[in-house]
Amino acid sequence: MIEIRNLAKKFGTKTAVDDVSFKVEKGEILGFLGPNAAGKSTTMRMITGFIPPTSGTAVIGGHDILTESIPARRKIGYLPENAPVYPDMTVFDYLAFCAEIRGFRGGKRSRAVEETLEKCFLTDVKRQTINTLSKGFRQRVCFAQAILHDPEYLILDEPTDGLDPNQKHEVRLMIKEMAARKAIILSTHILDEMDAVCTRAIIISRGRIVADDAPANLKTRSNLHGAVSLTLQGGDPEAFVAKAARIDGVASAKILEKEDDAAKVRIFPKAPDAALLNTILVALSESDCRASDVFVEQGRLDEVFRRITS
Ligand SMILES: Nc1ncnc2c1ncn2[C@@H]1O[C@H](COP(=O)(O)OP(=O)(O)OP(=O)(O)O)[C@@H](O)[C@H]1O
Ligand SMILES: [Mg+2]
User: 171 lies in a domain?
Assistant: First the structure.
C-alpha cells in the first residue's frame, strides 16, 4: 500500500501542495487529476523521494520515504513529467544502465532489458541514441525505465503524454494488466483516459484534494446525469419541448440547436429516474416529431471537473 500522510510543499511563500492525505491499495489505479499548477507533479515528486516535503510524508509498502528512502524507492517505478532520459545513450545502454542501478547483473540484466524493450515496443530502436528518437518513443523509453524492475508501486506522471492514439491504447492496456499486482498512481489531463483506466479518481485543485471517488460516481455529480438527449426530425420540436417540460419529474426541457429539419433537444429530470425515458418516448410518439437519436446522459467528467476546479 501507498499511504500519503498530510503531505505539504511550500516554495517560498507559495503553497504548491496543502495537507494531502490518501491511501492506494494494490489493485487500484488512482487517477490524479487537476488543472495546470494544481500540485500533481509536486505531490508525485514527494511520494517518490525526488524532493523532500515541507511537512508530512509518504509510506511505500511500509517504508517511510523520509527515514527509509532506499527501501521505499526500491519498490517504486517512477515516470517523471516530460520523460527525462539521457539523450546521448542508446535505448539499450540506457535501460541496461537503469537495470544495473536497480541491482540486476549478468543474464538477469539482459533478460530484464530485452523483456522490457519488447513490452514497450522498443526492440526496433534499441541501438538508436535517445536524442534521435521521436517524442513518443522517448516517452516510451522513460516508461520502460519505470517498469523495468517490475515494481510494486508505480507513479506515472502523464504516462500517455505525446503518444499517438494506438500507443495510448497500448500503454493503457499495459497499465490495466499490471494493476492486479500493483498500486498505481497516474496523472492525466485526458478525462476519457481516466474514465477508461482508473478505478478511482482524486481531483486536486490549488494543492488540495477536492474530490475522491470512482469515475462513475463522479459522473453522477454532473448536471447532465440522467438527462435525456434526443435528435428530432421534422414536426414541431417547440411544441414537443413545451409538452416534455410539463411531464411529471421533468425539471426543464430545451432545444440546444436547430439545423434544417433537425433539432437537438435535452430534457433534464428533477432527479435521475429510470422510468422517465419511457414517459418521454410516449410523449414523443404522440407528437409529430420523429427521433433519429435518443440517449440518457451518464454525466460528463469534463463538466464535473470544470465545476469542481474553477
Ligand atoms: N521548484 C519549484 N520552485 C517553485 N515553484 C514550483 C516548483 N515546482 C513547482 N512549483 C509550483 O508549484 C505549483 C504546482 O506545480 P506542479 O508542477 O505540481 O503542477 P501540476 O499539477 O503538475 O501541473 P501540470 O498539469 O501543468 O503538470 C505551480 O504553481 C508551480 O509553479
Ligand atoms: Mg505536472
Answer: yes
pLDDT category at 284 given cuts 50, 70, 90 is very high
Is residue 305 in a domain? no
| pLDDT above 90: residue 286 | yes
Q: What is residue 206's predicted lDDT score, i.e. its pLDDT?
A: 95
Is any ligand 1 atom within 6 A of the Cβ of residue 13? no
Residue 96 and residue 198 in one domain = yes
Cα(41) to centroid(ligand 1), Å: 7
Q: Is the dihedral of CA 22, 28, 32, 33 positive or negative?
A: negative
pLDDT band, residue 76 (cuts 50/70/90): very high
Residue 310, pLDDT above cutoff 90: no
What is the distance in A from the centroid of ligand 1 to the CA of 260? 48
Residue nearest atom 24 of ligand 1, based on CA coordinates: 36
- Give the pLDDT of residue 16: 98
Give me the helices (H) in 51-200, please.
69-74, 91-101, 106-119, 135-147, 165-179, 191-197
CA of 36 to the centre of ligand 2 (A): 7
Q: Which residue has the cell 490495466?
A: 176
Residue 120: which pLDDT band, with cuts at 50, 70 and 90?
Answer: very high
**Is there an atom of ligand 1 within 6 Å of 51 CB?**
no
Ligand 1 contact, 295 CB (< 6 A): no
113 within some domain = yes
Using the predicted structure, report yes or no on whether residue 39 has a pLDDT greater than 90.
Answer: yes
Question: Which amino acid does the sequence have at 147?
Answer: I
Decide whether any atom of ligand 1 lies within 6 Å of the 34 Cβ: yes
- Residue 243 CB neighbour total at 10 angstroms: 17
